[in-house]
Design goal:
- Helix content is about 50%, strand content about 15%.
- The protein is of the alpha/beta class.
- The chain has a single domain, classed as 2-enoyl-CoA Hydratase, Chain A, domain 1 (Alpha-Beta Complex), CATH 3.90.226.
- β2, α1 and β3 form a beta-alpha-beta unit.
- α1 runs parallel beside α3 and α3 runs parallel beside α4.
- The longest helix is centred in the middle third of the chain and has 21 residues.
- The relative contact order is 0.14.
Length: about 270
């Protein structure tokens, strides 16, 4: 039996074959610091080992699903290349692959804004259900780093290359209804219906034929694994490389100061 009590920022409640996992840093909109980032990489292995769990549902405490990378964590990556190489790269890869490789279905109940690593968890789920209050943006380019993480492996599969390029390059926000319309999420429902709908679907899956469900997920995720071979780790490497440039310093400073960024790479060349 996994020791779910060892998790600090994830609350795990199990009942009737369903594990409800809640990101629990509501005071910072469930932003991912280094501890939560690590926990989001590991939890899927523990859920896989728990014979009592047949379905996982993940959501966020409070008003957000997850606001993305904690500013202090991002600053640590800028200041120390080893944080980027040892923590960011490995854990970002593990979040994606561990979710894809977990045979048990995962449902994301996206109760509010989802950005960065939180968005990776929202979209890598097998069934993603958004509240009408949900808002999405990848956020990488706004920070000044390449869109690695989950973006290149899953966005083109979900909403097509044209929409993926548009939203990943512009970092425009998408609301829940538009995300459903373009296929980025499975469903969008009124906010008060979000958790009842997520748990209804979880119960249907928990009571269904387990081998058939798990093997169907495994077969469908061959497309995800193909994306891993084609672009995912390459995109992760591009993201990590951009942490060593000057743009990310300005991107983080502008986010802290709530102003438009002035990226050094966009400056006019000297005459």
């Amino acid at each position: 039996m996994p020791d779910y009590a060892s998790y600090r920022d994830l609350l795990v409640e199990t009942r009737d074959g369903i594990a409800l996992v809640t990101m629990n840093r509501p005071e910072v909109y469930n932003a991912t610091d280094r501890r939560l980032h690590n926990e989001l990489a590991r939890i899927w292995l523990d859920l896989g080992a728990d014979e009592a769990v047949r379905v996982a549902v993940i959501t966020g405490a409070g008003d957000a699903f997850s606001a993305g990378g904690d500013f202090d964590m991002l600053q640590q990556g800028i200041d120390d290349p080893n944080v980027v190489l040892d923590a960011f790269f490995g854990e970002a890869r593990d979040i994606v692959y561990n979710m894809a490789n977990l045979d048990k279905p995962i449902i994301s109940a996206i109760n509010g804004p989802a950005v960065g690593a939180g968005l990776a968890v929202a979209l890598m789920a097998d069934i993603s259900i958004a509240s009408e209050r949900a808002r999405f943006t990848d956020g990488h380019i706004r920070l000044g780093v390449a869109a690695g993480d989950h973006a290149c492996i899953i966005w083109p599969l979900l909403c097509g290359m044209a929409k993926a390029k548009y939203y990943l390059l512009t970092n425009d926000f998408i609301d829940g209804r538009e995300a459903e319309r373009i296929g980025l999420v499975s469903l969008c429902v009124p906010h008060e219906e979000l958790m009842p709908k997520a748990m209804e679907i979880a119960r249907r899956l928990a009571e269904g034929p387990q081998r058939a469900i798990r093997w169907t997920k495994r077969a469908l995720n061959q497309w995800v694994r193909l994306g891993g071979l084609v672009s995912f780790e390459y995109s992760l490497a591009m993201e990590m490389l951009t942490f060593f440039g000057e743009d990310v310093k300005e991107g983080l400073a502008s986010l802290r100061e709530r102003r438009a960024p002035r990226f050094p790479s966009a400056a006019a060349p000297a005459s």
